[in-house]
Amino acid sequence: MLTRIDHxxxxxxxxxxxxxxxxxxxxxxDIHTEVNEEQGVREAMLxxxxxxxxxxxxxxxxxxxxxxSPIAKFLAKNGEGVHHIAFGTDGDVQEEADGxxxxxxxxxxxxxxxxxxxxxxxxxxPKDCGGVLTELVQAAETTEH
Length: 145
Ligand code: CMX
Ligand code: CO
Description:
The chain is α+β, with helices and mostly antiparallel strands. It has helices at residues 15-26, 70-78, 93-101, 140-144; strands spanning 2-11, 31-36, 41-50, 56-64, 81-89, 113-114, 120-124, 134-138. The chain has one domain (2-144): Roll (2,3-Dihydroxybiphenyl 1,2-Dioxygenase, domain 1), CATH 3.10.180.10. Helices cover 24% and strands 39% of the residues. It has an 8-stranded mixed beta sheet. The chain starts with a strand and ends with a helix. 31% of the residues are buried. Residues 7, 9, 60, 84, 86, 135 line the site of cobalt (II) ion. This is Methylmalonyl-CoA epimerase /ethylmalonyl-CoA epimerase. Pfam families: Glyoxalase_4 (PF13669).
């Protein structure tokens, strides 16, 4: 089941300046940063609140580390702004993806990949979701239970 908004992904050109904007303007201070080579990003997760299913709710700020990464392509076309929405699952993310695929929505990965903080992620094609790039996230905590 999809139980929460895990995060909103926001494409930015300067991660440090964007983190500083959110820190200064809204007071978000619970910040995790990492580089995800496979996704071609340096990213910051700003925690907004905890959830009851082992996950939490975040803003994900994404800066490209390669010109051929999805975020670089998005920035070149659209500039900075909201890039995707991510729903959290309370169970296996591949099972959720299979259920969604049965409704005719294209799932972009054959198997889940590694997301922030050890999560398992996959994506749904924006053209099948009314123009919204949609990510599914199984938090690391739920995979350990
Ligand atoms: N939101 C909505 N529509 C989008 C989009 C987005 N973020 N990115 C691309 N599109 C649209 C484009 O506007 C384009 O539409 P038109 O044909 O009408 O112009 C169409 O999708 C194809 O876009 P494209 O620029 O040619 O890009 P690609 O097809 O090469 O890639 C996508 C699009 C979604 C398959 C690719 O971005 C992808 O694989 N994304 C998943 C991985 C990802 O986004 N990683 C970064 C985040 C990592 C994380 O969250 O941890
Ligand atoms: Co994301």
